[in-house]
Write a structure and sequence with these properties.
Alpha-Beta Plaits, alpha+beta, 12 helices, disordered C terminus, 21% strand, Gyrase A, domain 2
């Protein structure tokens, strides 16, 4: 079978990328090495060619057209300018595909789907949409780049201006790039601060090269993308999920656990509080990443998400942003199961003194010892 080519194939070859098949496409697997690219994404910022993904433009009233019944999320509660991770299900509740939905206008949507499922997804959607709905497959015309890493915001701020700072996790806006007004969203598949940039196939190579002129940005292949998503516990269609696995089996049962743990953390029983703290972080990470951790792994994750009083302000802010992303990811995946009470509890957590990046020292009264991590029971008090 002939492999499909992205508009950036020649650019990858110029950079000496090792190429290989993925989902019917010839894609860059690595440039300088998978581990090197993995580390660079975690520490700096990497650029990924994701032009193989599919994009559908749908003009339809979510309820009247039947669109709201095609995916598992409630599209009607989405605001314009927001995205939502969701899935399309078969009659048995199995996952036909996992995708991201963008609400472009009140009655206009963009679905971003997996490359290997483009034709299957398109047929499924058209079969279930009402006749008055308009469906357009943009996959052959629209390219996509993922800019991922802790420095991604600064890179795009220099390119697009301060308006990029208004984007929160799973939101998007339109920006002018190389003369085109297209979508830039704060989304990604690495667990890092990141953005996805959409541009026509004719202009995408120009944007690729423009971003690589910044010395902080290096190209990364699908090998690093895979290790990055594995590290975060993100699922890959065809490997971790398919038409025989339901969204419930993919981790949504942790919403009740998170709600219960949030209530228990106010208990006066120290043992119950300690257990509830673990459950909160475990449930947050499981909901936002799909990964379940044993006790040893959870202890390691705690140190990455919860600050110690001895942390420098920059380190504390990095940990806070990781926790913000975990909370926002959990909220997106939970959908209607996410409660206002959970929202209030998470806001209390983020407002705690230890989470404030500008705080240089612990409070004088009852200050914890150096290196101690603030407990969630004090945060939720």
């Amino acid at each position: 079978m002939d492999l499909k080519l992205t508009p950036l194939t020649q650019e990858h070859q110029k950079l000496g990328a090792q190429m290989g098949p993925f989902g019917g496409w010839l894609m860059p697997i690595q440039y300088s090495g998978i581990l090197t690219e993995h580390a660079w994404t975690r520490q700096q910022v990497s650029l990924f060619d994701i032009c193989h993904m599919g994009e559908f433009l749908i003009d339809a009233d979510a309820q009247k057209s039947g669109l709201n019944r095609i995916v598992s999320a409630n599209l009607e509660v989405m605001s314009v300018g927001s995205c939502r991770y969701t899935s399309m299900l078969n009659e048995s509740g199995g996952i036909i595909d996992d995708l991201i939905v963008y609400r472009l206008k009140i009655d206009q949507w963009m679905f971003v789907v997996n490359a290997s499922r483009i034709d299957i997804d398109a047929a499924h959607i058209k079969r279930h949409l009402s006749k008055d709905a308009k469906f357009e497959d943009l996959s052959a015309r629209l390219g996509k780049l993922d800019l991922q890493g802790p420095l991604a915001h600064e890179v795009l701020r220099q390119l697009l201006g301060s308006r990029i700072s208004a984007l929160t996790y799973y939101t998007f806006d339109h920006f002018v790039l190389l003369g085109e007004n297209n979508v830039v969203s704060r989304t990604g598949y690495t667990g890092e601060l990141g953005y996805e940039l959409y541009l026509s196939n004719e202009k995408i190579a120009g944007l690729w090269n423009l971003l690589l002129k910044d010395n902080r940005v290096k190209p990364a292949g699908l090998g690093a993308r895979d290790t990055l998503r594995l590290e975060m516990g993100y699922t890959l269609y065809g490997q971790d999920i398919d038409e025989n696995i339901t969204p419930l089996e993919a981790g949504m049962e942790n919403v009740p656990l998170l709600s219960r743990a949030t209530n228990l953390v106010r208990s006066e029983d120290r043992q119950i509080v300690s257990s509830a703290q673990d459950d909160i972080l475990d449930a947050l990470l499981y909901l936002s990443t799909g990964a379940a951790y044993n006790k040893e792994q959870l202890a390691q994750q705690k140190s990455a998400y919860l600050p110690s009083w001895s942390d420098k302000p920059a380190t504390r802010e990095i940990k806070r942003q990781r926790l913000v992303q975990a909370i926002e990811g959990a909220r997106v995946r939970a959908g209607r199961a996410w409660s206002p009470e959970l929202d209030a509890a998470m806001q209390q957590l983020l407002a705690s003194p230890a989470m404030r990046s500008g705080q240089q020292t612990a409070p004088a009264a009852g200050a914890p010892p150096a290196g101690a991590r603030p407990s969630l029971d004090s945060i939720f008090k």
